[in-house]
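Action item from last meeting closed. Structure (282 res):
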């Protein structure tokens, strides 16, 4: 599946920021109202730890919606590596607007940078193997597209976006359809042209999926030896994706079996927010 691009996210970013500001600001920032409306200020955002930056467009949109008079200068771009105490954004404008938008903007940056940072860490672990690491649907509710974009900033890749853009036929689907061949055949009828992936739990099921003409075959918790055998059996007739129980200590060995993809839910679900700080000066 193709990776999400920032250009395709503009309406999504506007909507996500609108909802985030609504839950934070409500009917007005009463603390910022303590500051004179004409007071101007400058602000700098820094990272307190190593990170891969992501979320600049979301921060831009936060301050645009809060107060379009605020000017923003980015000193780094999405995908850039940040060092501890590195300033990466400078802003100037009405002090009220800077303070009102601060937490919302930082929430987006710290969460998306965390996703990008974790993705880069995993991408570094398989460097040179040729495998592509894929995200999953295990994302924060309402932030799926944002997190999937962050994954690409960290050097990994997107799996399907949701339940609508590609088939992923699992054990229960197979049982309900009456077998792998029947499930794949029905998928071709329902949505011709959309990718069809089948999850298998054995080499016998792999052969069935190949015979059915699956585009991608997910090897669910197969041993490394079985995955190497699966690569030989498949011989390029379909793409192979390893999944299930893969962690930092086992990732490299799985990548070296020769599979095309490895899907890892923790790229998006097991992230720790990057420590950021905004410093204000009048």
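Sequence:
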């Amino acid at each position: 599946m193709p990776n999400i691009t920032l250009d395709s996210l503009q309406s999504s970013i506007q909507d996500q920021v609108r909802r985030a500001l609504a839950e934070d600001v409500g009917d007005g920032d009463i603390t910022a109202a303590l500051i004179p409306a004409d007071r101007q200020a400058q602000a700098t955002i820094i990272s307190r730890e190593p990170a891969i930056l992501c979320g600049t467009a979301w921060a831009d949109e936060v301050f645009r919606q809060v107060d379009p008079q605020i000017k923003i200068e980015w000193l780094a771009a999405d995908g850039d590596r940040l060092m501890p105490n590195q300033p990466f954004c400078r802003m100037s404008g009405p002090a009220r607007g800077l303070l009102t938008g601060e937490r919302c903007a930082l929430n987006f940056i710290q969460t998306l940078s965390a996703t990008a940072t974790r993705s880069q860490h995993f991408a570094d672990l398989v460097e040179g193997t040729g495998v592509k690491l894929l995200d999953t649907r295990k994302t924060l509710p309402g932030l799926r597209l944002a997190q999937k974009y962050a994954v690409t900033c960290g050097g990994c890749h997107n799996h399907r976006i949701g339940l609508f853009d590609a088939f992923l036929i699992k054990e229960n689907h197979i049982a309900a359809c009456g077998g792998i061949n029947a499930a794949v055949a029905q998928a071709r009828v329902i949505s011709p042209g959309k990718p069809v992936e089948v999850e298998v739990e054995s080499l016998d099921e792999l052969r069935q999926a190949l015979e059915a003409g699956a585009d991608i075959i997910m090897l669910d918790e197969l041993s490394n030896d079985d995955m190497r055998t699966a690569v030989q059996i498949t011989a390029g007739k379909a793409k192979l994706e390893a999944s299930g129980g893969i962690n930092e200590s086992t990732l490299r060995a799985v990548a070296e079996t020769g599979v095309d993809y490895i899907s890892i839910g923790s790229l998006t679900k097991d992230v720790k927010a990057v420590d950021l700080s905004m410093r204000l000066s009048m």
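Note appended to the action item: The longest strand covers residues 86-94.
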